[in-house]
Design a protein that fits this description.
By secondary structure, this protein is α/β, with parallel strands linked by helices. The protein is built from eight helices and six strands, in the order βαββαβααααββαα. The chain has helices spanning 19-27, 66-74, 97-111, 115-126, 138-150, 154-158, 202-205, 207-220, and strands at 3-8, 31-37, 60-64, 80-84, 163-169, 190-195. The protein has a six-stranded parallel sheet, with helices on both faces. 37% of the residues are buried.
C-alpha cells in the first residue's frame, strides 16, 4: 500500500532540508503523496497553511528536531511518526541543560541584530553549510527558539496513539542526549534507536542512508 508521507524540518532550516530523502521516496514508489512542509523560517511566502485535521489518519510524518515539537502542538492524528533527533523538552533531555539554556538564551539575544551569525554557528554544529542567500524571517525564528527553550511537550508525546520510531545519536552536537531521561518517553508504541557517529544534519548530509533507514520502517507498517 502506498502511503501519504509528510516531512517536517527542524529549526533554522526550510523544506529543502528533506528534499533529497523525499525524492528517494518518490523514485522508489513508496508514496501516494510525498510532501515537504515549510515552517516559514526564511520567507513567509514559503509557508503554506495546511489543514492537517483533514488528512488521512493513516499518513506518515517524518520529523527532524524542532519538527517534533511543531507536530506535537498541532495534535495531528496519523499512523506513525519517524523522528530524527527530536525531543519534547529540548533542555531537559540534554546532558548539560544549564549550558544548553545559556547557549539558546544567547542565540535569542543575538538573533534580531545578527541572524546570519546565529544561523551560521548553528549550521556548523549540525555539520551543514550555511548559504546566506535567503531572507530570514526573524519573528518566526525567534518565536520557535523561545518555544524550544521554554516548552515541555512530554505529556503531549506520551498521549500519542500512533507508533513512533525515534533515532538519536551520541555524536549529535545540538542534542547532546541524556540517555536516562529517555525513560520518561519510553512506552509500548515508542521504538528508540540509539546510534553513533550521526550529526544533527544527518538526513540532509546522508539522504541515501537516511532513506534506507526510513524504508525499513515503512516496509513494516
Amino acid at each position: 500500500m502506498k502511503l501519504d508521507i509528510y516531512f517536517i524540518h527542524g529549526w533554522g532550516f526550510d523544506k529543502s532540508f528533506w528534499k533529497p530523502v523525499c525524492k528517494k521516496i518518490e523514485e522508489n514508489g513508496l508514496s501516494r503523496i510525498a510532501e515537504t512542509i515549510d515552517l516559514g523560517f526564511f520567507s513567509q511566502r514559503n509557508f503554506l497553511q495546511y489543514n492537517f485535521q483533514e488528512i488521512d489518519s493513516k499518513s506518515i510524518f517524518i520529523l527532524h528536531s524542532y519538527g517534533l515539537n511543531w507536530f506535537l502542538k498541532n495534535q495531528i492524528k496519523c499512523r506513525a511518526i519517524i523522528n530524527f533527533f527530536g525531543v519534547p523538552n529540548f533542555l531537559r533531555f540534554q546532558k548539560n541543560p544549564h549550558i544548553t539554556e545559556k547557549i539558546i538564551t544567547k542565540m535569542i539575544e543575538n538573533f534580531s541584530t545578527n541572524p546570519s551569525k546565529v544561523l551560521k554557528d548553528f549550521y556548523r554544529k549540525c555539520n551543514v553549510q550555511y548559504k546566506q542567500n535567503k531572507e530570514v524571517h526573524i519573528e518566526n525564528c525567534l518565536k520557535s527558539l523561545k518555544q524550544l527553550k521554554n516548552e515541555d511537550l512530554t505529556e503531549n508525546f506520551n498521549n500519542l496513539k500512533c507508533k513512533v520510531f525515534s533515532f538519536f545519536s551520541f555524536s549529535d552536537n545540538v542534542l547532546e542526549l541524556n540517555k536516562k531521561d529517555l525513560q520518561s518517553i519510553k512506552n509500548d508504541n515508542h521504538y528508540i534507536n540509539l546510534l553513533k557517529n550521526l550529526d544533527h544534519g544527518f538526513p540532509k548530509n546522508h539522504p541515501e542512508l537516511c532513506y534506507k533507514m526510513i524504508e525499513k520502517i515503512l516496509m513494516k507498517l
